[in-house]
Amino acid sequence: MPPVTVTLIWIAVALVAIGLYLSWTAGRLDRLHARIDAARAALDAQLLRRASVTQELATSGVLDPAASIVLYEAAHAARQAEEEHREVAESELSQTLRAVFGEPAQMDAVREAPGGVEAAEELAQAVRRVPMARRFHNDAVRAARALRRHRTVRWLRLAGHAPFPLAFEMDDEPPTALADRPGT
């Protein structure tokens, strides 16, 4: 075989390899963006569940009136918050939950009421799931950001027109009375 043919074959192989790498990278980035969307939907569902359970508990008549009003307003604000204010509203709900349920005596009062054990357990589950959902979302965001920072991805615009992924930062520390799992 003439040397020109061998050179052309190697160039074609190199171009195919580069094309496969770029296609794989673009596909990976697309999968990461889909993972971010799914994780964001799961996070939204957990935040909505936490706010709903909090509102139910606030309107159940189990808590004292002041705690009920404060919890209801914080949960309502979290549910109605616009996207750009959502992190702040959810953080305020976390702070309110810690203020109201900071003492185990308040949770004991809830558990003693009719249906209180189920309500307390449902709230505890909702409060525990929010940090996990937020962590999954932020991990997906971190992975997509790391891939989007590569020169190849930026120069060849492999991300297309997808918006730059943003992490969801909020105060999600649960109250001590709700954070501990029963029996542990």
| H/E topology pattern | HHHHHHH
How confident overall, as mean pLDDT?
90
Major beta sheet summary:
none
Number of strand elements: 0
Percent helix among the residues?
A: over 70%
Structure notes:
The protein has helices at 3-59, 65-80, 86-100, 104-112, 116-148, 151-155, 176-179. It is built from 7 helices and no strands. With 184 residues, it is mostly helical. The model has no long low-confidence stretch (mean pLDDT 90). It is 76% helix and 0% strand. α1 runs antiparallel to α5 (116-148), α2 (65-80) runs antiparallel to α3 (86-100) and α4 (104-112) crosses α5 (116-148). The protein is rod-shaped, with a radius of gyration of 25 Å.
Question: What topology emerges from the helices and strands here?
Answer:
Blueprint lengths: L2 H57 L5 H16 L5 H15 L3 H9 L3 H33 L2 H5 L20 H4 L5
Helix pairs in contact: 1-2, 1-5, 2-3, 4-5
Brief overview:
The protein has 184 residues and is mainly α.
Q: Top keywords for this entry?
A:
184 residues; rod-shaped; single chain; mainly alpha
